[in-house]
Amino acid sequence: VGKIRKKRAAAPPRRKTIRVAIIGAGGRAAGAHYPCLAQLPGCDLVAACDIDEERLGGVCDRFGVAGRYTDFRQMIETEKPDAIYAFMPPHHLYDVAAEAMERGCHLFIEKPPAVTTEQVRQLAAIARRQKVHTGVTFQRRFAPVIRQGKARCEARGAVHTAH
């Protein structure tokens, strides 16, 4: 009589650790984004960049980030991150986002993704050409105050003129 062999359960797929670098160390990034990334399994927060060295040092010390840079290009070249999280005023974002993607980094940015519709289209074209994944954060879209505001706007109907 033949033996019945138990089939071995397949091991769960191993998750790759993602090397992440952050551009921006301001209040929103330090209060929301750094804490989430620092505790995210599979995320290795390898470097941060900000033009304000004091602010950069404080955030890096608080979240255990070793790589510290004031030039994002140097950070990307040296650290070779898989992904970049970029948090800065919108008028700076396009150039930084475009260059990060041109260098092959996946990109996650704060809203708005650019200042003009044409810039957004150009960023999308770069992402497609470089085959990088992108995302834009809308981290408070489910906050009660935002949901209430949205409901009020929808109740009023379409806006055609603003003064």
From TrEMBL:
The coiled-coil regions, if any, are: none
User: Pfam families this protein is in?
Assistant: GFO_IDH_MocA (PF01408)
A molecular function (GO) held by this record is: nucleotide binding
Q: Where is the Gfo/Idh/MocA-like oxidoreductase N-terminal domain?
A: 18-137
Protein's UniProt keywords contain Cell membrane: no
Q: Which UniProt keywords apply?
A: Oxidoreductase
Protein name in UniProt: Gfo/Idh/MocA-like oxidoreductase N-terminal domain-containing protein
